Every structure is written in C-alpha cells, then in structure tokens.
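Comment on this:
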Amino acid sequence: MNTVSPDLSDRLQFAVDIARQAGEVTLKYFQQDNYEVDLKADNSPVTIADQQAEQLLRNQIAARFPADGIIGEEYGKTEGSNDYCWVLDPIDGTKSFISGVPLYGTLVGVLHQRQGVVGVIFMPGLDEMIYAGQGQGAWYQRGTSEPQPARVSTRRSLQDAVVVTTQIDSFAKRQAQQAFHDLEKGARITRTWGDCYGYLLVATGRADIMIDPIMNIWDAAAIQPILEEAGGTFTDWQGVPSIHQGEGVGTNGHLLEAALKITATYPGPS
C-alpha cells in the first residue's frame, strides 16, 4: 500500500494556503490605477503586485520551511539545504493582469530532487483553484465550495478537441509557426485562453490540449503534478515528462500522441 509522505502533505496544504494569500495581494491592484507597469530585461511587464505577492510567498516559506530552496520569477534563487525547492510565479499572465482581464494566476510548485511533486494554481480574479500532490489526486475548488476531484476530458480525437495556447507569436520565436497552424487546422476549437489558465482548463476537462513553445521553470513547475494527478500529461514537445525543457504540452493523455505528431519535429527552444 502506497503512503503519502507527511512532508509532502504538509507542503501541499501550506502551498494552497499561501497561494491564496498571495493571490489576494494581487487583487488590491487588479483593475485599479494604483500601480505602474515596468519592463524587465526581456521586455516582459512587472508590477508592484508581482513583487509584493512573491515577497509574501518567500517570507512565508522561509518561516515555515527554512531549509527549503526557493526559485521565483521576480527575485531569483535562494539555495536550500535539503531536497525540496519551491518554485513561484506570483502572477502568471501579467499581460492579462495589467489589462484588467482575470485570466491570470498565482503559481506555487514544490520540487523534490528536481521533480515536481506539488502544484497549485489560484486564479484570484475568478476565485478558482486547482491543486495536487503526488499520490494525492488533483482537486478543483470554486470560491468557498468543497473541493472536487479534478479530471481531464475523455476526448480522443483532435478534430473534437479544444486546443488553447498563450500567445501565437511565441511559435514564431522558435520557428514553429506551422505547429500552431496544424493544431488550429486539426482541432474543433482553438483559443488563446492561455498562461496557467489553459492548463487549469485541461486539468478540469474543459480543454484538451494546452501548448507553450517557450516556458520558464516557474511557469511549468506547478503544472506537471496537477495534470498528472488529474489523469493527463505534461511533457516537452518530444514527449518527455519534464518541467526543465523550456517548453510544454499539456494534454488529457488520449491526445498526447496527436499533439506530438505535430510538435516532435521541432528542435527545443534555444
């Protein structure tokens, strides 16, 4: 009989709690005019909401699990002294956030020996959350309702599928425009309900494939355990289950092969 490590259970519950707290920090600024938008070195936007939310996450983790490492989008890497590392994206979808669109989320992931074992997506503007721990299933919660098991869809044909992505021009950045066109042509519906929300949609059976040509580890770390515990897959474009490859394909499992037929011919992002 498999047993779940108390260390893992404790970190999962804590991740759920602090993701919600950090997400609530972002709501103080969402759809308000009380902040400025700055550009980072890669020309991606950042706000005081990103920074304050990550600071909250880091402070809480350091107080509760001081030996754990931390990687965050805004403040980099803090080395730990054990095999656990937290991976944080305080606002995944900052472009949606600064546009007043609620399709942004707070991501909290936990790695053990570099493998994703805990993931939380909290969508503050929608009050939706999905979370998972390795061996503990994936759970979806809307508002204050009781969490319900999250399961991927059962669709098996690409022509019946809903395919989502974040930003179409990201395919061009890795010379993979045709991959998007092939997915769009083959699918029933294609939309840019992207960033972490796209993966939440796959994990709850509302979409079937979510694809990102370019990802950072803080975009991916929380996603893999959620999709796998919901019965789906999260891999690189060649089908390797990994959060470290700088790209991602999330599927309901049934459509992984169909997606890989399109993506596997493209080299990884440079």
